[in-house]
């Protein structure tokens, strides 16, 4: 098994190859002035391919599809994709008439190639795996690493910003030995505006609270959750998010939080949670 990687994932590739003793080789990449791209791979019968698809999602997806196509043309029989962040995952269903299920379209391209497994970190919704048919999807959630980052703050309650993410709060809370709960969130699909309210009976008076979520984009959800937690009397509010895009003025909007922790699926200044060991373990179980 050969380990191939795109340049922006070299840090993860080096750590994973060191843990598993795999030969790591870069994918050659070229970006042309007209916006087109080209890749060159080293042919292999079996290979694991690591691709960070964010930022420049659309360009990186094209590079991924070209690499898969080249590997398949040269006789690859088994390919394992390691995609730390799955793009288009938030469009996992049709929210308005006429819309596509974008993540299904992306995964539909992948299953055209000899891909046996996709390893990803904290998919927006676990049922996304159903869209890829006979390709097995391994969804890694680094709850223990997140708990380790938060432990210094003596967290009393772990909160999810909405009902759909409560499984993350539960996993981290169990690792911390803390309680867990969630807010009720509503999003206007036309404007993107977020409305959030505490569940009836939720009290955070004098407690240290951690908010966990999968994506920090503009910071609107975290800011709203932080303000609600403080309005309920929280003594300190902290956040741990898997994929931190930090778009626009997200840093300014999240100043309500005492500390923010992110994983290195998308590198940023808050990326203190390294998921390479979890990815290596998931890959080792497949090999």
TrEMBL record:
Keyword Transferase assigned: yes
Annotated keywords: Transferase
EC number: 2.7.6.1
Source domain of life: Archaea
Entry protein name: Ribose-phosphate diphosphokinase
